[in-house]
Amino acid sequence: MYTKILILTFFVCIGISPIHSKTITKGDINDLLTQIDQIIDEGEKYQHLRIHAADSLYRVARHSKGYDKINAYKQIYDLYSHFQSDSALHAIKLIEQTDEAKNDKDIRDYTKIARGEIMGLMGLYVEACDNLFSVDASSLSKENRLFLFQTFRSVYGWIADYASTNNGTAEKYVQMTNAYRDSILSAETYKVSYDIALADKYIVNNDANEALKILLDDLESAHDEELVFLYFNLAEAYRELGDENEQIYYLAKASICDLKAGVTEYLALPMLAHIICKHGDAERAYKYIIRSMDDANFCRARLRTMEVSNIFPIIDKAYKQFEKDHRNKMSLFAIILTVLVVLLLCVITFVLKQNKKLSITRSKLAEANDNLQSVNNELQNANTHLMKADRVKEEYIALFLERCRSYLDALENYRHSLLKLAKNNQHDAMMRQLKDHNQIGEEQQRFYRDFDKAFLDIHPDFVTNFNNLLKEEERVVPKSENSLTTEMRIFALIRLGINDSNNIAHFLNYSLATIYNYRSRITNKSTFSKEEFNERLMKC
Fold it and tell me: How many CA atoms lie within 13 A of 466 on its CB side?
């Protein structure tokens, strides 16, 4: 049984609901066992938290004086009392070395009781009793009196568990344990702690139902650090009632509390391992008992080590049988798998022979299909290009006819205008009209617009691609979206295959020198050589 309630709320049982109001199912138990597995797999994470907390308190103690230093050492003792016995004794020694301990009886009494507790935990029962009997119980403070009763109850309980039952020695210490439990009940004022001791008494006296009423009621009001004791006593009560399902459930909850608190002296986990081993879960039970044994040895808790050692052979035997059965199953599986592989190889060989006969035919068909697909793709591409070419041809034939018709109409209107002037003998006006180039200029601009639109419809990315051939600072920006600059028109004609400068000059109504200048200037602005520029231009 546990010796005292942990006083540090730093170590709480995270994630455990304090209310049990539903029937326990196998799923509920499996969830808790999975949590325990995860905590064990995390190694010594929570124990490291306890060590770090103790280290922090040591730093506080080094910078404190008087009773503040003693309080820090007491907290260090509380951290190590159920974690590492030697470190707990060291904390007691540090308290004893203070000036206050030499002059304050309460502190001296505290160190004697605390030393007795650790000696009892380590199995040094004679030394434990010597320390406890050296305390004058009649002059103790209320806190130390309760501490003394709790420690006597724990030490005598450990001796009773350890003593032989053949000569009545164990019964003597059981009676002493019960007597000090009664002393605790007379001195304890905190309800939950009182109820824990009272429930323990009911369980010992075979009145588990009464214990359950008290414990289940306290679940709603207990602090996190008290839940572990409530859970353990609940497990004990259900054990007395023969309800193993509920016992496993609460042992699992208590084990989670212990492991997350980082303590190494506990009883719930090895008890849980023993029970689940009987239910056939040898692998998990072995994992739990190994962790329990390691923790008990680390704490130097002699009784816990003996308790685990008594359980270990049972679990070890079951685990070895589990491993043997597992190996046998694996061997059988390997034999079956080998037979299946042989059969599969035979089937594969037969299928390969059959497939080999079809492989030549398949390859020929595949080759023919590939060729046919290639021809179909080429035909589709050619058809697409032809359709596109026909659409463009029809579109621009219509545009050409419309432009020719507009030129004919313009010439006819111009002829009528001149004829009218001649009939009216308006020779001066006729001469002015003949000398006027505005109409020709307008027609030329209209021609350029039509050309720009037609070309950009065919080559919509020409402007962007053309500018990509030029240096960034030399790029040309048209005045509008569907228009080209003079330089772009020259190279648009080249893109259409009209490469001769004379033809370009005639087409655009520029002098030959102007065309040469534009071509040279643009070529010089390019980031490529002349040959590469011309080659890339034809892809714009």
Answer: 23
φ and ψ at 470, to 5 degrees? -105, 160
> Do 79 and 10 contact (CB within 8 A), yes or no?
no
Q: Where are the beta strands (DSSP E) in 357-423?
A: none
Cα gap 454→465, rounded to integer Å: 17
Query: What's the pTM?
Result: 0.60
Total count of residues recorded for the chain: 540
Quick count: other Cβ atoms within 10 Å of Cβ 325?
11
The CA-CA-CA angle for residues 513, 516, 522, to 5°, reads: 140
Q: Which has the minimum average pLDDT: 31-40, 139-148, 247-256, 482-491?
A: 482-491
Residues linked to residue 470 through DSSP beta bridges, in sequence order: 526
- Helix, strand, coil content of the chain in percent (nearest 5): 80, 0, 20
- In angstroms, rounded to a whole number, what is the distance separating the alpha carbons of residues 143 and 226? 18
Within a 10 A sphere around the Cβ of 492, how many other Cβ atoms?
25
Give the model's pLDDT for residue 89.
95
Question: Which distant-in-sequence residues (6+ apart) come within 8 Å of 273 by Cβ?
Answer: 284, 285, 286, 288, 289, 292, 311, 315
Question: Is the four-CA dihedral 66, 71, 72, 76 of positive or negative sign?
Answer: positive
Query: According to the model, what pLDDT value does residue 396 have?
Result: 59
Q: Residues 6 or more apart from 124 whose CB is under 8 A from it?
A: 302
Nearest to 118 by CA among 300, 385, 246: 300
192: its two tokens: 């939950």
H-state helical runs in 424-461: 427-435, 438-458
Q: What is the pLDDT of residues 457-483, one digit of tens each?
A: 888 888 889 889 888 888 888 888 888
CA angle 52, 56, 60 (to 5 degrees): 165
The answer to whether 469 and 444 have CB atoms below 8 angstroms apart is: no
Separation of alpha carbons 137 and 116, rounded Å: 14
- Average predicted confidence (pLDDT) for the chain: 85
d(CA 497, CA 503): 11
Q: Which two tokens stand for residue 302?
A: 């002699």
Which stretch of DSSP H or E encloses residue 437?
none
> Which two three-digit tokens encode residue 162?
């350890």
CA distance 484 to 518: 14
Residues 135, 188, 233: CA angle, nearest 5 degrees: 110
Residues 192/222, Cβ–Cβ less than 8 Å = yes
What is the residue whose two structure tokens read 């719930």?
268
Listed in sequence order, the residues at least 6 apart from 109 whose beta carbon sits closer than 8 Å to its beta carbon are 135, 136, 140, 141, 144, 148
Q: How confident is the model at residue 395 (pLDDT cuts 50, 70, 90)?
A: low
More confident residue, 417 or 397: 417
Task: At 32, give phi and psi (nearest 5°).
Answer: -65, -40
Confidence of residue 68 (pLDDT cuts 50, 70, 90): very high
